[in-house]
Amino acid sequence: MANGIDIDTGEVVNNEKFKVISEKIEEIGEEQVIVWTYWRKFSDELHKYLSNKYGTIGLINGGTSESQRQKQINSFKSGELRILIASIGSIAEGQNLQNCHIAIIANQWYDYIKDTQSIGRIERVGQKNKMLVIRVVAHGTVEEDVLDVLTQKMSLHDAHNYLEGIMQKKFGLRRVVNDSGQYKIPAGAEALEV
């Protein structure tokens, strides 16, 4: 039986992943931690499980009202909440959570940008601590395959940024936002095929 959730139904398959997340929280000690999830049912069940072990745990997902969401974010920022379980889709873009430097990614998502955004919530200007990102992936599952694809996407993205930097430094080319996504050649520069 696989760990985590059934992708088709969103139902929690078993709680082995919950145990691993709990062990990681124990290892972290008293530091604040945000646990990123992508499925509401999973986050609800994880919240119940961790609340039984640790007491008051924050939860922000699609079922959290806007007022409750802001209240929990404020409690987390102030240090009242040590553990926050959150869905990246339920925390507004631009939200700063740099009071925390530890993230546990409980469910792998295929979207590189969403993955980066979840980490980016705590990796902000003002972050004084070294970041720690823990990915909890069940071996031998589709989720492990998703992580492989995500890693490939990250490598391609990093390579693209590296090459773009070389183009900017060496040839004075800069990226412009246009329909074709092409480099704009500054006046007086030679066109160069790469």
Explained architecture:
- This protein is α/β, with parallel strands linked by helices.
- The chain folds into two domains: 4-138, P-loop containing nucleotide triphosphate hydrolases (Rossmann fold, 3-Layer(aba) Sandwich), CATH 3.40.50; 146-184, no CATH class.
- It is 41% helix and 15% strand.
- It has five helices and nine strands, in the order ββαβαβαββαβαββ.
- It has a five-stranded parallel β-sheet with strand order 4-5-3-6-7, with helices on both faces.
- Residues 175-194 have low confidence and may be disordered.
Number of domains: 2
Find the CATH topology of the largest domain. Rossmann fold
Q: Unreliable runs, pLDDT <50, ≥5 residues? A: 175-194
**Secondary-structure element pattern, one letter each:** EEHEHEHEEHEHEE
Strand order of the largest sheet: 4-5-3-6-7
The largest sheet, given as strand count, sense and whether it forms a barrel, is: 5 strands, parallel
Q: Would you tell me the overall average pLDDT? A: 76
Individual helix count:
5
- CATH C-level class of the largest domain is Alpha Beta
- The helical percent reads 40-55%
So, CATH architecture of the largest domain? 3-Layer(aba) Sandwich
**CA-based gyration radius:** 20 Å
**What amount of the residues lies in strands?**
15-25%
Distance N terminus to C terminus? 50 Å
SSE layout and pairing:
Blueprint: E1 4-5, E2 12-14, H1 16-28, E3 33-37, H2 40-54, E4 58-60, H3 66-78, E5 83-87, E6 102-105, H4 112-120, E7 132-135, H5 142-171, E8 174-175, E9 183-184
Parallel strand pairs: 3-5, 3-6, 4-5, 6-7
Antiparallel strand pairs: 1-2, 8-9
